[in-house]
Amino acid sequence: MDLGRINEFALEMIFDAGKYIRASFSQELIIETKSDFKDIVTNIDREIEQFFVNKIKMRDPSHKILGEEGMGDNIVTLDGPVWIIDPIDGTMNFVKQHRHFLISIGFYVDGEGKLGYLYDVMRNEIIYAIRGEGAFIDHRRIRKLMPLTIEEAVIGINASWVIPNDKINHEKMIQLIKKVRGTRSYGSAAMEISLVVTGKLDAYLSMRLAPWDVGGGMVIAEEVGAVTSNLKGKPFNLLTHDTFLIANPSIHKILLDQFIELK
Amino acid sequence: MDLGRINEFALEMIFDAGKYIRASFSQELIIETKSDFKDIVTNIDREIEQFFVNKIKMRDPSHKILGEEGMGDNIVTLDGPVWIIDPIDGTMNFVKQHRHFLISIGFYVDGEGKLGYLYDVMRNEIIYAIRGEGAFIDHRRIRKLMPLTIEEAVIGINASWVIPNDKINHEKMIQLIKKVRGTRSYGSAAMEISLVVTGKLDAYLSMRLAPWDVGGGMVIAEEVGAVTSNLKGKPFNLLTHDTFLIANPSIHKILLDQFIELK
């Protein structure tokens, strides 16, 4: 399998989708709610996923697709080549802010991440990685993350996990917030992951993410030395929803051991 | 006083500063801590403030300047023409992310906001307002904020105010977080204000801000119908540090009455 050629194909497909999304702001958006009123989808999410599915299937029908909007295949194993796709990560930001949303794509073969993409559509900023060959931002190589202390860290965390909740001991989250230099929250897992892999944040954690939220970012993380896991310290399960942590390697274990206690 | 000409002067000065800041990333940054390790300043903050002070004093020495880094005047009243300047709001973001920081400038005469500027340096996006003439983003007019419910709101709030603290009843903040559609935190008051005045966030609150954090944004808020106050519902005190709330007019009172209880 020629990863270089698949990479070129993926980059072109992603840039084309970005152009379409940017042009879409001049049209009327159709917004629907999904599981609850905080979970929304637009016609553009669906159109972009369908565009990716068509492109990938036309190129090689044997490639399987796991997409947020369900236009791909019914995936029960990661055997063979599988694309994991979020056409718009941060749909609320897309609708309300017209910024701060990303296309996230991962390409896996037999469960191993080979290619990863995080594309900030409005910044026109592409972060991508080819397994074993490194990660790049706008085609410049991203250097490995530099070590730092937990006191120096700026972490991405949503306020929902800092208040009493049924997933995690929030008292330890309070200790974490007092310990670190600062916290941020952007409303897009892919955006927060893109900031961690470029050293702009030092960690990001969430109690519930889907494969398409992290599939692209996990391949990039590997190439820059960022550590990913679920909140038990095990590999994130790409076949279902799971908890998630990505961190600078010098603080990943400290976060897990001292501040994260699942209920 | 010809506000149109002062506006042209200010815009040119701000764009020049932006060019200088963008070019500064190729040089070594000198970082110092101020009051504590979370409060930092760089040589660029100081150089940019000095640049603004020089420009303003050369144009009209009678104009007073209240600046974050103290290069301006010792301001004890807002009588006469006063510039309120933050050369880089979001210095931690500036240092660590090379993005998500803004230049914030307000021009006041006898305490009344006449001109306001929020310049996202890396996006090269300027938001400004001329009192009575409206607010503009990249020279396109910003429309008045549309009403919405508290359940539909996305608000900017730092996690520090959601955990037990000595400023505010955090239990009510927990209720607020459960009530709204989402929360965000960007690490720059000027950035959060810029998102509120353009309808990308619906409110932002902080327990402690300085005049230069809000002086520019308050003039813009007035022109788009966003309501600003301190957390007691009184006008923000531009001569000292104060609590701060900016919100869509349809939720400002609800936030104050139902969710904000100062200690």
- How many structurally independent domains of chain A? 2
Tertiary shape of chain A: globular
Termini separation of chain A = 43 Å
Output the CATH class name of the largest domain in chain A.
Alpha Beta
Task: Indicate the proportion of strand residues of chain A.
Answer: 25-35%
| Main sheet: strand order of chain A | 3-4-5-6-7-8-9
CATH structural fold name of the largest domain in chain A: Fructose-1,6-Bisphosphatase, Chain A, domain 1
Low-confidence stretches of chain A: none
Any guess at the CATH architecture of the largest domain in chain A?
2-Layer Sandwich
Question: What share of the residues of chain A lie within helices?
Answer: 25-40%
Sheet with the most strands, sense and barrel status of chain A: 7 strands, mixed
Number of strands of chain A: 14
Q: Return the average pLDDT of chain A rounded to an integer.
A: 95
* Radius of gyration of chain A, in angstroms, nearest whole number: 18 Å
Q: Please identify which CATH superfamily of the largest domain in chain A we are dealing with.
A: Fructose-1,6-Bisphosphatase, subunit A, domain 1
The number of helical runs of chain A is: 7
**Secondary-structure class of chain A:** alpha+beta
Question: Assembly state here?
Answer: homodimer
SSE pattern of chain A, N- to C-terminal: HEEHEEHEEEEEEHEHEHEEH
Largest interface: A-B, 31 and 31 residues
State the gist of this model.
Two copies of one chain form a homodimer. Chain A is α+β, with helices and mostly antiparallel strands and 263 residues long. Chain A folds into two domains: 3-141, 2-Layer Sandwich (Fructose-1,6-Bisphosphatase, Chain A, domain 1), CATH 3.30.540.10; 150-259, D-Maltodextrin-Binding Protein, domain 2.
